[in-house]
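Design job #97: recover the sequence.
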């Protein structure tokens, strides 16, 4: 039985595959559990794993350039609404998303999936001209982060790397930044610094309205299979779709069971409330895989990658995934 390495984080929807509860039919799995921050730079460079978690934005960029080592599968290991990902200095004159125009905005990487979605959302929903933001890139709470891919951006788009010894968090505290867009909060926000606040103060409400208006649950990370492995083993991609689909069902059943139990098995006081809210807004099967039913999110991210000068051309949904995903 051929052995394949599968690398991703320890998501509840991935663990049944990684721990062997759900087999990948016809293959012996060598599991590798690493966070995205470790896996993503590897996936766009040395590509050491047969199957890996991928940044969707990086995948779009490399695929549009015909240089991606992986072929994608519509297995969405990470999805997240991102209205709460914008942090501002409350003395910078930023009261609405449109006030970000002309401001110095820090982001860990211009090309990261989080930033791609935030720019697309504030452009579509709030009319922001995202080309007028003055971007500064670097590590969020620790200095030193750099773009993982070489970008070909227009000269009038201001994207500059911060110094190697300064983080976005320290820069916003020092007044060198007016705002930060990031997937995790800057430490100053965590610490309750009086100068730093979220731009959208009740992000959950805004995200619910966004979903009702668009039907989009933003896709962050997908699964990729090395192209030569997929070609050598035609049964692998369908087997992975089946296995990860079963793992997702196990995870969804677990979430439902915990939410509906008489005793709370998590250390989240409002776990059941959060689950009930998600179901009321998005339906009981709110974390779906596959192409069907996710067309709005897939079309949006392809459009955003093109509009924001990241992809070499605008990709279409039929180009995104292995052929088995469309069966």
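Job complete. Output follows.
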């Amino acid at each position: 039985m051929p052995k394949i390495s599968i690398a991703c984080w320890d998501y509840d929807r991935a663990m049944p595959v990684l721990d062997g509860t759900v087999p990948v039919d016809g293959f012996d799995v060598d599991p590798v559990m690493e966070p995205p921050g470790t896996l993503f730079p590897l996936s766009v460079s040395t590509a050491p794993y047969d199957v890996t978690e991928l940044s969707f934005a990086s995948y779009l960029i490399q695929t549009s350039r015909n240089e991606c080592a992986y072929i994608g599968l519509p297995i969405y290991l990470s999805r997240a609404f991102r209205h709460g990902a914008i942090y501002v200095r409350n003395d910078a004159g930023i009261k609405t998303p449109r006030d970000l125009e002309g401001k110095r905005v820090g982001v860990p990487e211009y090309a990261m999936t989080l930033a791609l979605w935030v720019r697309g959302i504030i452009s579509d929903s709030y009319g922001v001209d995202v080309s007028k933001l003055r971007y500064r890139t670097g590590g969020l709470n620790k200095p030193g982060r750099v773009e993982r891919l070489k970008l070909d951006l227009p000269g009038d788009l201001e994207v500059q790397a911060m110094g190697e010894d300064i983080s976005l968090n320290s820069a916003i505290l020092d007044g060198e930044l007016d705002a930060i867009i990031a997937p995790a909060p800057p430490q100053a926000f965590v610490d309750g610094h009086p100068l730093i606040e979220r731009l959208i103060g009740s992000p959950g409400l805004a995200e619910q309205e966004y979903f009702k208006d668009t039907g989009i649950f933003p896709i962050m990370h997908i699964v990729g299979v090395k192209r030569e492995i997929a070609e050598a083993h035609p049964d692998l991609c369908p087997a992975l779709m089946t296995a990860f689909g079963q793992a997702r069902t196990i995870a969804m059943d677990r979430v439902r069971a915990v939410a509906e139990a008489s005793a709370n098995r998590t250390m989240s006081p409002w776990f059941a409330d959060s689950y009930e809210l998600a179901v009321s807004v998005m339906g009981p099967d709110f974390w779906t895989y596959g192409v069907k039913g996710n067309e709005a999110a897939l079309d949006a991210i392809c459009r955003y990658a093109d509009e924001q000068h990241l992809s070499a051309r605008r990709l279409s949904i039929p180009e995104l995934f292995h052929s088995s995903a469309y069966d």
